[in-house]
Amino acid sequence: xxxxxxxxxxxxxxxxxxVAGALRALAEDAHLRVLLVGDAALIESEIARAPATHRARxxxxxxxxxVTMEEKPREAIRRKKDSSMRIAVDLVHEGRAAAAVxxxxxxxxxxxxxxxxxxxxxxxxxxxISAIPAAHGLTQMLDLGANTKATPExxxxxxxxxxxxxxxxxxxxxxxxxxxxIGEEDMKGHEVVQAAHALxxxxxxxxxxxxxxxxIFSGDVDVVVTDGFTGNVALKTMEGVAGLxxxxxxxxxxxxxxSRLAGLIARPVLRRxxxxxxxxxxxxxxxVGLAGIVVxxxxxxxxxxxxxxxGTAARAARHELTRQIAQALAAERLxx
Length: 336
Fold this sequence. Notes:
It is built from 12 helices and 11 strands. By secondary structure, it is of the alpha/beta class. The mean pLDDT is about 90. The chain folds into 2 domains: about 160 residues, Isopropylmalate Dehydrogenase (3-Layer(aba) Sandwich); about 160 residues, Isopropylmalate Dehydrogenase (3-Layer(aba) Sandwich). α7 packs across α12. The chain has an 11-stranded mixed beta sheet with strand order 3-2-1-4-11-10-5-6-9-7-8, with helices on both faces.
């Protein structure tokens, strides 16, 4: 497998966190190789103390510019051609990298990825997909922020690509697809979801119909489809609720002596529960539908979370995700 190109300059965390994440990913995957894109002197100083076996699988690719979190997508394309984000995506386009990973500005990354890599035949817009912890394991959800609006046709394409991810990457034989709505009844929802409901229902996918927000975690659906505005709001809400629960539990178990004793007894169970719900475990969302693999990390990711995003990129590359999606969509067009 070609190395993974990693933008270590973009995002809300300092570059050392992203370099630390890359080194952690190298430690977890003996076959992984990385291209660290950014300020060469800074990167060199951060990896200087890394084990020689890790440095041997690392190459530094210099970049003189950085796309800020406030950058407008159009300006990022026009004025930041030597940015770490742009170069990481360019490396995928040139065939020097199997995938690109960035924690930077979502709008800029989406625009650059579309501009450089283009979408696959039959795909109008790429979507961001990620795994959400649920009762049965994981629910794949898309779009999580690449497109604030989506047409019925695009939502139908998202459903097809989500099914491929669930089947070929997560190993679900016949993934159940749900369309996020304000109710499960057929008459509910605005005209876009109503039209998408009809398209997905006629697509041949294992479509179970409309689902509500609580169904994301129920285990009754494997892929939840929505537009990027709704999906991103839902994702940030989940992260906020998870943080609230952890903080509230911590405060309650420290309230008094009896509570602290109960906390000591329950600590092994609480640690397992917290680990299973830790957002860092699920960091790294693929932009599906592009003619190349791009993974978006959370902007505030620490080294642990960023390593997960790199791992997501490596798994997508090893599963030849782009080829799988292209073949499945081509077969769908021939059959329609």
